[in-house]
Amino acid sequence: MLLPWSKLSTLAISHQGIAFKQADGQSKLLTDNKLAWTNVAQLAEILNAHQSLLKHQHVRMLLSNTLIRYLVLPWQNEVFTKQDWQSIAQHEFRKQYGAAADAWKVSVNFGNYGQTMIAAAMDESLFVQLEASAKALNFTVTSIQPLLMTLLNNAAEPQRDWILVAEPERILLCRTHNEEWQQAVIDSPPSGLEYQHAEQLINRNLLQMATNEQPSKVNSYVSAALHKVWEKTSSKLQKIVLRSNSTQAHPLWMAGLPCHNKSLKINLDFAENTQLNNTLWTWGILAITLLAMTLLYTQYQDTNKKISDQINLAENRAQSKSNAKPNLAAAPAMQDKLRLAQQTQQQLDLPWMQMLKALETVKLANPNIAILGISPNKSRAEIKLTGQTAEFSDLTNFLDALRNNSNFTDAVLVSQHLEDDQAKLLYVFELNLGWRI
Predict the structure, then answer these.
(1) How many helices (H) does the chain have, and how many strands (E)?
(2) 276 falls in which pLDDT band (50, 70, 90)?
(3) Residue 144 burial (10 A CB sphere; 0-12, 13-18, 19+)
(4) CA-closest candidate to residue 144, choices 127, 121, 123, 166
(5) Cβ atoms within 10 A of the Cβ of 312, count?
(6) With contact defined as beta carbons under 8 Å apart, do 89 and 71 qualify?
(7) What is the pLDDT of residue 40?
(8) Residue 154 DSSP one-character state
(9) Exposure letters 374-411 (e unless 16+ CB within 10 A, then b)
(10) Could you tell me where the beta strands, DSSP code E, fall in 276-423?
(11) Pairing mode, strands 370-377 and 104-108
């Protein structure tokens, strides 16, 4: 598993070439001319020729949309496991593209409960070659992402409008409504006609939609390789995101896209990352939290004793001066020290262990809840909890148990969404908990 402080390199693969960006920020084209893509053996040869660049690197693989197919899946209440959703996606791809889809590797993004899902597919042979090259050349594949995933995860706001991704000879239009996927449409225009085809694709799809479902603008992500094509346009339909200031080779532009390390808005990662058991993670986090709180409590006792000694010493000195000079008030500097000491003692005097014990009691009564994080906020008398569970009913029971505990004032569910964990779906949630200080 990649540690949070590990630095990532990026390998960008497209029909226009391959680029590599090192963790220190240096980018390099690994192919001189336009890549005539025929088979994955070419990729192995290119990577072998640049083994020194890749060796010991943690690499994010970024694939152009020319190497990916997309479709939207309707929600089905009776489907629960990741494998089942992938089987459904594989079947839908086969219906659209024929028997060739049997040789594709499929990934499905899980959003909120009851919403449509977007699925992506790549050639299994390309995936196998990437894994084999990583093993042979001694580098680590951290993720294999389609370009759409990287672009949307770096967006500042959730996608409420349609999304268009423009690459050389490839246009991808994703229709959404109320943050829910509707359709993914592909066009493959001749070189130099990408802008005209993008406008035509948007207009055709607008005609198919009711007025209340049409977006105000289409968020367009345009490759720097198409800078000259889009430079002088003033489209009334498109809102350009990540506008380039100069023309740049398409794979270099891809490699330069920032890597999003926070919570993902869309997850279409094809890499089979080994994940630790959620229960072990939960107990590990709780153990670390309890250890930290124990150390804090020990430090608190030690600090409290020192502060008490200082206060007693200050009071004794003040009393001595008062006895010696009964008509003089305590020095202002001494009063400031006393006030600061009292404020510090009040801030440290919090019932940390009582809160953790109460939380542990509720957790033991709800064994199906996995707590992933605990963030107390003493200034607001509030605790932020993050966790996950396989059943929504377990989450409601957990909330009721917290509300009924006398150590807490209230428990409010802030957010929840579905994520896949190997063979099952999990509800990942965040809640705010009132804390009786």
Answers:
(1) 12, 17
(2) very low
(3) buried
(4) 127
(5) 10
(6) yes
(7) 81
(8) T
(9) bebeeeeebbebbbbbbeeebbebbbebbeebebbeeb
(10) 370-377, 382-389, 408-421
(11) unpaired
Please check whether residue 160 is in contact with residue 176, taking contact to mean a CB–CB distance below 8 angstroms: yes
pLDDT greater at residue 185 or residue 154? 185
Residue carrying structure tokens 């989450």 = 395
Residue 278 scores a pLDDT above 50: no
Query: For residue 111, what pLDDT is reported?
Result: 79
**Torsions phi, psi for 112 (to 5 deg):** -75, 155
Q: What does the buried/exposed string (b/e) look like for 98-114 if buried means 16 or more CB atoms within 10 Å of the residue's CB?
A: eeebeebbbbbbbbeee
426 - beta bridge partners?
A: 419
Token readout for 254 is 């891809």
* Distance, CA of 210 to CA of 213 (rounded, Å): 5
- Of residues 359, 341, 354, the one with CA closest to residue 398: 359
Mark out the alpha helices in 55-193 (DSSP H runs): 82-97, 124-137, 147-153
Give the confidence band of 5 by pLDDT, cuts at 50, 70, 90. Answer: very low
The β-bridge relationship of strands 58-63 and 140-146 is parallel
Cβ pair 241, 162 in contact under 8 A: no
Length of the chain: 437
Reduce the DSSP state of residue 266 to 3 states and report it: coil
Give the long-range contacts of residues 402-410, CB within 8 A, separation 24 or more.
402/362, 402/431, 402/433, 405/358, 405/361, 405/362, 406/436, 407/354, 407/355, 407/358, 407/435, 407/436, 408/358, 408/383, 408/433, 408/434, 408/435, 408/436, 409/381, 409/434, 409/435, 409/436, 410/434
Q: Which single residue is written with the structure tokens 């060796």?
A: 55
Q: What is the pLDDT of residues 193-248, one digit of tens each?
A: 999 999 999 999 999 888 888 888 899 999 999 988 888 777 888 988 887 778 89
